[in-house]
Amino acid sequence: MAYLTGYQYYENEGNTPEDLNWGSYQYLSLADVVNNFMLMYVGNDKLVNNVHRYNVLFHAKRAIQELNYDALKEIKVLEMSICDDLKLVLPPDYVSWVRMSLFKDGSLMPLTENIQTNYAKSYLQDNDCKILFDESGNVLIGTSLLDYDRITGQARDMYLGDGSMKGQTGYNVDGNWFFDYTVEARFGLNTETANVNPTFRIDKKSGVINFSSEMADQIIVLEYVTDGMEDGDNDEIEVHKMFEEFIYAYIKYVILTNKVNVQEYVVARAKKEKTALLRNARIRMSNIHPGRLLMNMRGRNKWIK
User: Would you call 208 helix, strand, or coil by DSSP?
Assistant: First the structure.
């Protein structure tokens, strides 16, 4: 890889953006990974031979994807406002969420995932409950009552506090209370939803996040995991240098696994090497410092009231 001068690193040689190279020394580009593997691990006198560059490129991408899912812990953070429809479209590189928070009064308030269904697709029906179709034979889609109740805030409250009478959650319609059980006859608390903050539920098929009515006109902070493919731009794909040797071991192992006439002990040895290098890289990335342990240990004598 090419090393940068101080002027190139800090000022990007006067070009825009100025921060293009900040922190870049921690990472290795996908092109460098593929070039290094082809140069050092492929040849007639090497264990891996007669392999095409596109094969190495494919396996290098798969290795980076697996690292992003499990070990790299490179979390992206997105901040957006929630409008009256109480929906947030998932980012294009979204794979899985880490934490959802409401940003209010300078603090991040964690949101709880709603385990109850709060959205649905509604088919239009006639008075005989038969589904209605358009002239092309497609089912007519109507307004879901679940969506309507969620957006207008008419759904049953799940928590103790507002929307409950004597600790019993139910429905308040025009000032009249309706309960699934007799008031004061239900005991315990659903700890999965014991949070006064708004709730959310991810509709993976539609690619949106649905929020409860309290999130209208609020700011959401989404922390999520991506696959590291940077929208398909190979020039932007990078991997942390601490995982460099693992990437090479992963590519070698996968190639040997799929080649014919390779002895089983060779494949087993490559697998063992890959696993050991991943474990070592994880330990390095854990970034455990004595100072952090000291800060945690200071609370060992704290009184819990």
Answer: strand
H runs (alpha helix) in the chain: 6-11, 30-40, 53-70, 145-152, 244-258, 264-285, 290-297
Q: In angstroms, rounded to a whole number, what is the distance separating the alpha carbons of residues 41 and 273?
A: 14
Among 225, 253, 278, give the residue marking a domain's end: 225
Report pLDDT digits (tens) over 61-71: 999 999 988 88
pLDDT digits (tens, 9 = 90+) for 230-279: 888 898 999 999 999 999 999 999 999 999 989 999 999 999 999 999 99
299 inside domain = no
Beginning with the edge strand found earlier in the chain, give each strand of the sheet holding 219-225 in spatial order. Answer: 75-81, 219-225, 96-104, 107-110
Per the structure block, which two tokens stand in for 72? Answer: 């790299």
Whether residues 65 and 196 share a domain: the answer is no
Q: Does residue 209 sit in the same domain as residue 93?
A: yes
Please check the confidence at residue 122 and state whether its pLDDT lies above 80: yes
Judge contact between 225 and 96, C-beta under 8 A. yes
